[in-house]
Amino acid sequence: MTYSLRRLFATILVYCSPDNPRELWEQFEDSMSEDFKILANIKAKDIHLAVLNHINDILHSMGRDINEFNLVSENITSSKMANEAKEAYFERNIIVINEDLLLHRKVNTEQKIAYDIILKRVFANESGAFFIDGPGGSGKTFLYCALLATVRSKGYVALATTTSGVTASILPGKQSSLASLICDAKLIVWDEVSMAKKNMIEALDSLLKDIMNINVLFGGKVIVFGGDFRQTLPVVRSGKKEDFIRESILNSEIWNELEKLRLSENMRAKTDLSFCEYLI
């Protein structure tokens, strides 16, 4: 509803040419800010900027800019806080489609074992750090989707990322809206972790311990890693095999603390048993 109000406001600015845009803004700013107010650790001035930035994004899609309308005295430019708040809002409001709600009914035996073990930890509020091992085509992504859909359908936050979407340099500060989102997450899924350097995983471990204020692996969160070391390893410039392994999670103390769950049935090549055995 609040998102729709901001879109309506932008539409009015562009297509209705109100006589006094600033007066309209001041009258409805509070109503257009409701969704950002639910975010923890976000100040009033940051909510103010987040709303203006989102309206500006909408205006840009219409070929206009918010500064043309003189809604406020200051010049509006995108801020990291506003972008983080917007991202957090969308993550909290993901709608699970009916097709995804039925994924858990289609898992195979190995996937079902992993699915049940992981969700038991999630819904019992217990910690768990898992690694899903399986060659390409064994249904890792399908399992992740089933897990995420189930958790989100219960109204909880579940986060998913890949190594290409994570770097230690952009891990959020403890008081940011993204940190608040991570704090509320019931489940975190990180695919392609075989490509990640171990210091990235260790940085996440430190961050979660800090955010959750508890010295337990990954702050006591339920976190699911996945990847295939047969196909991908961290990139090391001019490196040799031993360099790749040294930089990977395999050479981190965290590796031995992960619970390993294996998928071996190749869902893409069921009819070619020799190829399946070759992959494994």
TrEMBL record:
<dbReference type="InterPro" id="IPR027417">
    <property type="entry name" value="P-loop_NTPase"/>
</dbReference>
<keyword id="KW-0233">DNA recombination</keyword>
<keyword id="KW-0234">DNA repair</keyword>
<dbReference type="Pfam" id="PF05970">
    <property type="entry name" value="PIF1"/>
</dbReference>
<keyword id="KW-0227">DNA damage</keyword>
<dbReference type="GO" id="GO:0005524">
    <property type="term" value="F:ATP binding"/>
</dbReference>
<dbReference type="GO" id="GO:0006281">
    <property type="term" value="P:DNA repair"/>
</dbReference>
<dbReference type="GO" id="GO:0016887">
    <property type="term" value="F:ATP hydrolysis activity"/>
</dbReference>
<feature type="domain" description="DNA helicase Pif1-like DEAD-box helicase">
    <location>
        <begin position="107"/>
        <end position="173"/>
    </location>
</feature>
<dbReference type="GO" id="GO:0000723">
    <property type="term" value="P:telomere maintenance"/>
</dbReference>
<dbReference type="InterPro" id="IPR010285">
    <property type="entry name" value="DNA_helicase_pif1-like_DEAD"/>
</dbReference>
<keyword id="KW-0347">Helicase</keyword>
<comment type="similarity">
    <text>Belongs to the helicase family.</text>
</comment>
<dbReference type="GO" id="GO:0006310">
    <property type="term" value="P:DNA recombination"/>
</dbReference>
<protein>
    <recommendedName>
        <fullName>ATP-dependent DNA helicase</fullName>
        <ecNumber>5.6.2.3</ecNumber>
    </recommendedName>
</protein>
<keyword id="KW-0547">Nucleotide-binding</keyword>
<keyword id="KW-0378">Hydrolase</keyword>
<feature type="domain" description="DNA helicase Pif1-like DEAD-box helicase">
    <location>
        <begin position="174"/>
        <end position="271"/>
    </location>
</feature>
<dbReference type="GO" id="GO:0043139">
    <property type="term" value="F:5'-3' DNA helicase activity"/>
</dbReference>
<keyword id="KW-0067">ATP-binding</keyword>
